[in-house]
Design a protein that fits this description.
about 50% helix; alpha+beta; CHAD domain; about 500 residues; CHAD domain-containing protein; CHAD_dom; Hypothetical Protein Pfu-838710-001
Amino acid sequence: MSATEHLEIELKFDVDPGRPVPDLTRLPGVETVTGPIEENLDATYYDTENLDLTDHRITLRRREGGHDEGWHLKRPGDAGGRRELHAPLAPPAEGADHDTTVPSDLLDPVRVHVRARRLDPVAAIGTRRTIHEARDADDRVLALLCADVVTARSLLPGGSCHTWAEWEFELVDGDTDLLDEADALLREAGARTASAASKLARAIGATPGHGGAPTVRSTGTALELVVAELARHREQLVEFDPRVRADEEDAVHQMRVATRRLRSVLRAFRGVIDGPKVDRLDAELKELAAILGVVRDAEVTADRYRELLVDEDASDAVNDRLVGEQMRRRARGQRSAVAALNSARYFSLLDALDDLLVRPPAGEDAEVGAKKALRDAVRGSARKVRKAQRKADRMDTDSPEWVEQMHTVRKRAKRLRYVAESGSALGTKKYAQTASAAKKIQSALGDSNDAALSRDLIAEVARTVTDPADAFVLGRLDAREQAAHDEALRQYARHADDL
């Protein structure tokens, strides 16, 4: 049985033991209250030695008892709620009291945090729960009020045991507007703001918590700016890791962008941050981007041909060669990407990136002002774009050397765009125009390159077709791609001197 997920939206309160619950029919839309339903819950919470899950407000537990016993993974979700993933308990191994192997469906979404580290029990929590169901006139359950008496024992070194009472008001089919009314009603009945965000947090005590990407003052140093930018893009990489594993739409693209932005910062700010650690991390990020690129390029190409073929009467064979083969290539690439994300090499990359943020190898320009470092990086990146453009201008258009050089122009324009956008970390829009111009150059050259590659594939397919109708279809596609290529180069010429 596979895991299921839902969004948990609840209010949590501390209460005095034995405090009677209020009449929930006082809430708007609540007609009846059923219960009480008694449950005894015994849960073991798991984390790494460094509490990597807790640090990111993630809880992983194995719970026996209750209507939803099993393994539960809770992560921050949208609308202030928590995404809860549930998997059933598995039969224990021979000679064991219960299963202790975390289901892969729950481990995959947090592998980017756990990596190769071991998950061990960090807390044991027992709950005596009394549930009251708030129902509407159609007998739908709008919300649950759980009155809990909790006994929690920390399994960490020096841990202790605590007992307390709390109320949890969890939405089921009710509207979020019900939360404000419930908050007022429960506080009137003696509820107090919860002293901890979760039972686990109260059991093991406060942890530093993951504060996200650091900020940098406009008067800060170049090193502070670089670390803030690296941390920001690291957050994006980590955010999209589980989405790539789940094959969510656009996830590969966003994760690939994060790796490219990380590399742009590492390269543009040499002198601020430098050394062998930077070189190794840059090389590993390049490899990761290449792996993700196989998936991204295939899905973009498949979408391109789907659009081109919409109004064409192409045969199944042509559709398969242009779209089907790209989708098969994407599927192979997706499997390879997930394998890479489960590899020791990838985990080492993440560890190296985390280490770099904590102990950045400062270069000779580390103490330069952040504003000056940003200005120098933007100017330096812009000079490299212009230099590559001048070199291309001396070459014969459409020659292999020119094509390769225009690819260099595109890569340098992309790097300039990413560096110029780093100004947002300082709260300045000074380089927004530069970033916009670089993006236009990058996009135009990207479009021309995509059209050229598409023409190559169309020509390859054309050499294998025998049906004249298919040949006509492919000829029309080639003409459209030629027009797209030429238009992209005209757009490039319009913006080539904007930097």
